[in-house]
Write a structure and sequence with these properties.
2 domains, alpha/beta, four-stranded antiparallel beta sheet, 40% helix, Aspartate Aminotransferase, domain 2, PyrdxlP-dep_Trfase_major, binds pyridoxal-5'-phosphate, Aminotrans_V_PyrdxlP_BS, seven-stranded mixed beta sheet, cysteine desulfurase activity, Aspartate Aminotransferase, domain 1
Length: 401
């Protein structure tokens, strides 16, 4: 039965892609953008761009006001406590690198950092490289055959030597939610800091950060229907105060002399240089748009589509779904056919999905694979999109097997 998306027309690119016979099923890589965001960008650039936190003039004051208003909006949206706890970065990757450099001073040789076995490279490599710089031990929290984190093993591996736990909220490959509640509580009891990579999770479940109980949370605007080039780092006030300045230049300085300088505290102290002003304003407009939607209707629509996608794949012969996906995306392989060949056939038929290692090479290696196809959903997708995907897949399977 046709299940239309009530929000499809809010995203002009979906119609444009359709006119080019393209079905977009790669929202976990990046999302399409709502008209509300396009309007906000046009307004900002059309009415006078200006740099923030420095100019006295009217456009500068307006830009600063709009920019800081978005910081407050984001803090409220995430239930962060206060706007001072929100640092703007250039993406989730840059937020995680900021942390890996800014927290480096607190580690000593022999300390441990724990990460799960299914992290995106963005939440693995900064910690791996920090461990190498400082002689730390990177502890990998294992997953079972279904790709689920082995919670008992993880609880044992996080111990008194653990100084930091870095874990994603939702896997970008397996579509599984991680058991954050017990892990974060246990890490805190051991005196470790915790970092949650919410790049995927924030899109499908609006977090309550005060309740979640992590020290840091990072997210990325472009996956949440916002502009690219913007990321967010949230920190608990005490934890944020522990992060050292890591990039130096304009905006973040308090007083500068030739031989020395003093710096502002977070958030501005961690935002060296011109921040992504238009991007932040655009993210604010996107949040307003998302807040205007019926959250229950969005969840129900996503759940229906996900079930349709998962069920359709599971009922086809020779397809192996990776793990036990719970939301928004499904990765799979076709026995005996290389994922690049499947991707090629789908691409030829205008189906935009992602193939490869999904920036999680160690996880794919652990699963004994060199790649997989990932189909991921946005709130503009509907059952017709999935029908077109399955038709193309069936044709591809006939051709390739
Ligand atoms: C789980 C996860 N973490 C981090 C990132 C990196 O995000 P960004 O593109 O904002 O750097 C991604 C992007 O795919 C992701 O899926």
């Amino acid at each position: 039965m046709f299940q239309p998306s009530p929000w499809r027309d809010d995203f002009p690119a979906i119609a444009a892609l359709h006119r080019q016979q393209q079905t977009y099923l790669d929202s976990a890589a990046t999302s399409q953008k709502p008209q509300a965001l396009l309007d906000a960008l046009l307004y900002y650039y059309g009415h006078g761009a200006a740099n923030v936190h420095r100019a006295q003039h009217m456009p500068g004051a307006l830009a600063t006001q709009a920019f800081e208003h978005c910081r407050a909006k984001l803090a409220a949206w995430l239930n962060a406590g206060s706007a001072e706890q929100i640092v703007f970065t250039h993406g989730a990757t840059s937020a995680l690198n900021l942390l890996a450099y800014g927290l480096e001073h607190g580690f000593q040789a022999g300390d441990e950092i724990a990460v799960s076995a299914l992290e995106h490279h963005a939440n693995l490599l900064p910690w791996q490289q920090l461990a190498r710089r400082r002689g730390l031990r990177l502890v990998i929290l294992p997953i079972d055959d279904q790709g689920q984190l082995d919670l008992d093993a993880a609880m044992q591996l996080i111990g008194p030597r653990t100084r930091l736990l870095a874990i994603s909220q939702l896997s970008n490959v397996l579509g599984t939610w991680q058991p954050l509640g017990p892990l974060l509580a246990h890490a805190r009891a051991q005196g470790a800091l915790s970092v949650v990579d919410g790049a995927q999770g924030v899109v499908h479940a609006r977090p309550d950060l005060q309740q979640l109980g992590c020290d840091f949370y990072v997210m990325s605007s472009h996956k949440l229907y916002g502009p690219d080039g913007v990321g967010v780092l949230y920190g608990r006030s005490q934890a944020l105060a522990h992060v050292r300045h890591w990039q130096f230049g304009g905006e973040m300085v308090h007083l500068a002399e030739y031989q020395q300088a003093s710096f502002r505290p977070a958030p501005l102290g961690l935002e060296a240089g011109t921040p992504p002003i238009a991007g932040v304003i655009g993210l604010g407009a996107t949040l307003d748009y998302l807040a205007s939607l019926d959250a229950q209707a969005v969840s129900a629509h996503e759940a229906r589509l996900h079930a349709l996608l998962l069920g359709g794949l599971q009922e086809r012969q020779g397809i192996r779904v990776l793990g036990a996906p719970q939301t928004a995306l499904v990765s799979f392989i076709v026995e005996g056919v290389h994922n690049a060949d499947i991707a090629h056939v789908l691409t030829e038929q205008g189906i935009a999905v992602r193939a490869g290692h999904h920036c999680a090479m160690p996880l794919l290696q652990h699963l004994g694979l060199d790649g997989a196809i990932r189909v991921s959903l946005g709130l503009y997708n509907d059952s017709d999109d999935l029908q077109r995907f399955f038709d193309a897949l069936d044709q591809g399977l006939e051709l390739l097997r």
